[in-house]
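Standup, Tuesday
Yesterday: got the pipeline producing structure tokens again.
Today: sanity-check two examples.
Blockers: none.

Example 1:
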Amino acid sequence: MKNLLKPFIAILLLGLFVDGCKTDEDETVKNYFKYDGTEFILSKGFLENYGKYSADEGYNIDLSLLSSAFTIYEKDGEVDMVSGVGDALYFEIFTSLPDKLDVRDYLYDGTESFAAGTFDLGVIGMGFNMETETGSVFDISGGKVSVTNNGSEYEITINCTASNGKTITGYYKGPLKYYNYDTKKKSVQRFPIR
């Protein structure tokens, strides 16, 4: 009986040793959104600063979060085009800061007051083809987007409702490329998934 216990103990100890030697890859953050019980992986994102249109509103900084299937093309310091077929989220956010998102909750505002701390437009796209503008696309009609940041790295938590009543949750942690159209207005306005 003693001889049978030795291999068992050796396997148990080896398992504890291997489990204790996890690499940084094991601790990677999963960026995703979940819609109607299905999870979609996000891999990148960017911010587009459109500035203020009047003194009594917040700064308009749009947030786009995309799956790896999309390619972002730049021209003259702008997002010229996004191509591919994938999954994405888009929010038109209003912040009190002129060059980044505040650390705060942004609440959906269907009245379009443009007040700091709100977003008035949100879109979710699954299997969305940027060229043909086909796929499953829904407006976001309620909820909040929570933002924290540490330098250029953002942490974003999403708890929203689509226009069809389905729940959208999500999480993104990582850098967001920043494009500033405040001083040089963007040549062509476009929604990435609209």
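Example 2:
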Amino acid sequence: MNYTETYERYLRSAEEAIQNTCRRMEFHPSVLGESMRYSLLAGGKRIRPVLFFAVCDALGADAKQESDFAVALECIHTYSLIHDDLPAMDNDDFRRGKPSNHKVFGEANAILAGDALLSFAFDLLLAACERGPRQRAAARCLSRAAGAEGMIAGQSADLYFSEHGASESDLLELYRNKTARLLSAPVEMGAILADGDTAAAREFGEALGILFQMTDDLLDEKGESAKVGKTLGKDKAENKLTCVRIYGLERSEDLADQYAERCTKAILKLAGENEFFLSLIKSVRSRDH
């Protein structure tokens, strides 16, 4: 297996599904659909839908039939980025190397674009639920990962801990909710749809999510803005709760290596072909964007 070619194949599937969905985003006034499509089609790694397609392939679920789950994932992720970039949140002018949504369409329209993408994701999920109990269970998994016991809780903690003291346990809770829940969701959903081992899927997804956020923190400290596609150095300037703040740079690098090893051990418990996932773990650990 060639990892890059396989990733690109899943990425093409994700982009095709997203572009097909965007053709349905014609709303009035037209600025609403335009602002939704602007951010949804801005590119990026698409790691969440890629993970979903890869797990479906590995475990035997019909990824093409279930592609609306991948699009819903990306709608939710994109809405979170639009809102995250707002002045009241992280106040970032760039995302994926392009001006943030609010810099193009204004703050109010950016808020509404994010709201609309979240609602649209649940339209997709509700339609999928009509196909059967596995689809309903997968939709419930994503709903919980995205809401007040998942990503939103993590974003709230991110704001809170920028102004308050924090411990190692606070950092891990932040990581699990802010990033790991929405990275674990595609792995768990694929396992649910394939009637696979959801516990093993959850263990791998959570470890991968924590590793991903650790490397994100490290990139903010030592990365290059041109490669990463957003403003760097903001975590330290705004006293964000990061592994670098808690452990320092050298110790954080060691811990990222440990979480990469946890990912490797976890994926070996999940039935199916795992070569792609082993390469993905290495790619996440060594990423520069």
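Quick observation on example 2: The chain is about 75% helix and 0% strand. The domain at 3-286 is CATH 1.10.600.10 (Farnesyl Diphosphate Synthase).
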